[in-house]
């Protein structure tokens, strides 16, 4: 049983945040969107080294919808709550966004 537990890959831990404001929105070559968020965050996955920075692929229809909501929240100074994927597959050191919603 111990051998099976040791051979099972560790599950990535997705983090989430409390409500917070957005800043420093950056769109990279290829459509990756990076942004800062100042809400309290749960434990980061092992790949994430940047506590307040998040990433998502803005080149897909779903990513474009996320970007539209993100820019609206930023322009209106609204807070958002974020849930991560537990992986840093869009940009090294930054957890990828699963979803977010407007908190107020």
Task: Please describe what this structure looks like.
This protein has 104 residues and is an alpha+beta fold. The protein starts with a helix and ends with a strand. It has one domain: Beta Barrel (OB fold (Dihydrolipoamide Acetyltransferase, E2P)). The protein has helices spanning 2-7, 61-75, and strands spanning 22-27, 32-37, 53-57, 80-84, 95-102. The longest helix has 15 residues, at 61-75. Mean pLDDT is 91; it is low at 1-10.
Write a brief caption for the model:
With 104 residues, the protein is α+β, with helices and mostly antiparallel strands.
Number of strands: 5
Compute the average pLDDT. 91
**How far is it from the N-terminal to the C-terminal residue, by CA?**
48 Å
- What's the assembly state of these chains? single chain
- What is the CATH-assigned architecture? Beta Barrel
């Amino acid at each position: 049983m111990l051998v099976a537990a040791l051979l099972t890959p560790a599950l990535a831990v997705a983090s989430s945040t409390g409500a917070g404001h957005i800043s420093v929105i950056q769109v990279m070559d290829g459509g990756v969107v990076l942004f800062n968020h100042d809400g309290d965050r749960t434990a980061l996955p092992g790949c994430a080294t940047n506590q307040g920075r998040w990433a998502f692929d803005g080149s897909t229809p779903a990513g474009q919808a996320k970007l539209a909501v993100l820019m609206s929240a930023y322009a209106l100074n609204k807070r958002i709550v974020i849930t991560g994927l537990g992986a840093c597959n869009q940009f090294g050191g930054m957890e990828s966004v699963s979803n977010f919603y407007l908190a107020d």
